[in-house]
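Discussion board: Methods & Data

I've been asked by a reviewer to show the raw model output for two of the constructs in my manuscript, not just the figures. I'm not sure how much to include, so I'm pasting the format here to get opinions. Each protein appears as its amino acid sequence followed by a line of discrete structure tokens. Is this the kind of thing reviewers expect to see in a supplement, or should I convert it first? Here is construct A:
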Amino acid sequence: MKTVLVFKTSISNNQEAKKLHPLLNKLMKQSDVFNFDLEDCDNILRVETNHLQPESVLGLLGMHGFYCEELH
């Protein structure tokens, strides 16, 4: 069963999101899915995964200079 992780981010435009796509793809397995909702006031990153822990996503975005906070 997949877990849905939802993050508030500082990613504010499609150019920044596209920059992160290959990095997120490396982090995830083939069955994992992610998408950005940049029209939401929290610039949401949504991840559907069977194996990733929130800390992996938080660390990746933080390493590349983006704010990221898991929403519960």
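Construct B, same format:
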Amino acid sequence: MNLFVLLNIALLIIVITFLYFLKTKHVKFSNRVFIALGLGILLGIGLQFAYGVESDAITETMPWYNIVGNGYVRLLQMIAMPLVFISILAAFTKVTFGKNLGKTAAVILSVLIGTTAIAAGLGIASTVAFDLDATQIMQGEAEIARGESLVERSAEVTTLPEQILTMFPANPFADLTGSRATSTIGVVIFAAFLGFSYLTLRRKEEETAANVKKGVEAIYGLIMGVVRIILRLTPYGVAAIMARTVATSDLGAIMDLGKFILASYVALIAMFLLHLVIVALTGLSPLTYVKKSAEVLLFAFTSRSSAGALPLNIQTQTKRLGVPDGVANFAGSFGLSIGQNGCAGVYPAMLAVMIAPTVGINPLSPGFIATLILIVAISSFGVAGVGGGATFAAIIVLSAMDLPIALAGILISVEPLIDMGRTALNVSGSMVSGVVSSRVTNELDTDVYNEPADKAQLVQ
């Protein structure tokens, strides 16, 4: 390890120490997260300016930064499955949740899939408005290699019935380890079966059911204690992740593909604004939604992991937006694999419209657009909520539209930058589905939703 690497590590330690100092001074959690974002960006810019993206100093430094950044994300992923399982099971101890389960699930799925179809339309509109065409973008060795790997991965793509079938848990204990892309849905289904079993037990054996309820509540309290411990690490994780992202971003590639990046974020922002319109249509304040969801959306943006953001997502819905535990867990869990607005909606639609002209297809024909939106909506089932989910969604859509998959590799150099916005939009979509579902079933606690954001801190 050379002197420069030691210096870079020391800089991160200084940033972490400063953030801890702010904690001792009782600076609000939300403020510390935003300060961490800013410090991470400044540190990343400084490292790139001092060494360059492909320097040995950067290459040797990033694994140490990943201990803090990726380590934090892994801790969140560690607790995500147990949290989903025990929260849904605990929710069945409330009679109202059991009664409204069917309606709740239907509304959540409708919002997730419906908004994904709309997101596809916005992706198409943005691509046309910016006149994007895959033939205009030069391909280097990395892009060609990425294209070849996508062609190989296309062999893994399954039909829609097979995708739906993978959601059912053959081995729920394996799903608790996150062994499959749809493991979260499998855990939800398993927990729901146990919940219905509890409701039956309560009618027949009240004493046994009472013991089960006490046990579930005890485990729930234990898991939530772990969640609170991990969430306290958020500022440090955000700072490390952001420093790594900025330090390793290829500014030259960003400049070359700036038009596509801009078009992508126009579509993503437009879809987020539509989320706010949906919230407003339920009679709630969209500004309150923005204020209270900012922390989790920021983390999703920096981490690029919907699964990693799940604990923050659920905590935000229950503590700040007034969504019941069971509904929040269903919305957050389904949102990991179904109807991701950014990864499964905007991105595949943009690629399809860009690639269509290369094979002589008019992307503006009504038939092509209608077919594309329908395929995007249907294929949004089973998209993994981790890095690479957008690629999988793109493969499915391009294959179904009979478009060349290899050309999707042209965007490899700016994938991380775009994926940040896509992930934040995915998480927002799942939270909106939870809010809307709770509102429709009259389970939303409007007092919690409307109280000032300062009174509903995720972490003290």
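Answer (T.O., handling editor elsewhere):
This is acceptable in a supplement if you add a one-line summary per construct. For B, something like: The mean pLDDT is 84.
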